[in-house]
Specification:
7 strands
């Protein structure tokens, strides 16, 4: 119990530090040419166990051709971890999560679509605001600090990408999508 609570507090402190750095424009990226397909495949693999525990099918459809992007691998892994963690947390057992990556013009587009509890339209834009949590009964049931998606938005914005959410409403699942500009060499 002590180890679990220590891990939880460490994550909370790190999230607060990250959101503070993002808000003050002091978050430093360590940019390198990296294969986004591999990062996403590894992230999906890392969350398979957690999905299996809830009997959630976790599928991915990635590009087979390696495309290098100038990104901070650790920070993009952090985005994927936050998105997959949310999808699993808010998807009931026997649900489905699909991760898809495709090239659209000069961007790579990554979508994480779940069959979870969904989000009412009035909250869709607010979920990227630090410390915002949708409804108190949902917050009590699922926990969380309301920092994960705000951190994702900051990281994606610093990479000159975009992030957004779509949902048809409560009980109809959610799709989180982010873009990253396609770059083939270091600048």
């Amino acid at each position: 119990m002590i180890a679990r609570n220590t891990d939880r507090l460490t994550r909370l402190v790190n999230d607060i530090l990250d959101i503070t750095k993002i808000k003050s424009k002091k978050l430093q990226l360590i940019l390198e040419n990296a294969d986004l397909s591999k990062i996403i495949a590894d992230s999906v693999e890392d969350f398979k166990n957690l999905a299996d525990q809830k009997q959630i099918e976790l599928k991915s459809k990635l590009l087979t051709k390696s495309l290098k992007l100038l990104i901070d691998q650790a920070r993009i892994c952090q985005v994927m971890a936050n998105c997959l963690d949310n999808a699993i947390k808010f998807t009931p057992g026997k649900g489905l999560i699909e991760v898809e990556m495709k090239k659209v013009k000069d961007n790579l587009v990554v979508s994480i679509k779940d069959t979870g509890i969904g989000i009412s339209k009035r909250y869709l834009r607010k979920i990227f605001i630090p410390f915002f949590r949708v409804e108190s009964d949902i917050t009590r049931k699922f926990g969380g600090t309301g920092l994960g998606l705000a951190i994702c938005k900051g990281i994606i914005n610093i990479h000159h990408g975009k992030i957004w959410a779509k949902s048809l409403g409560k009980g109809k699942g959610t799709t989180l999508t982010f873009t990253l500009p396609l770059k083939t060499k270091k600048q």
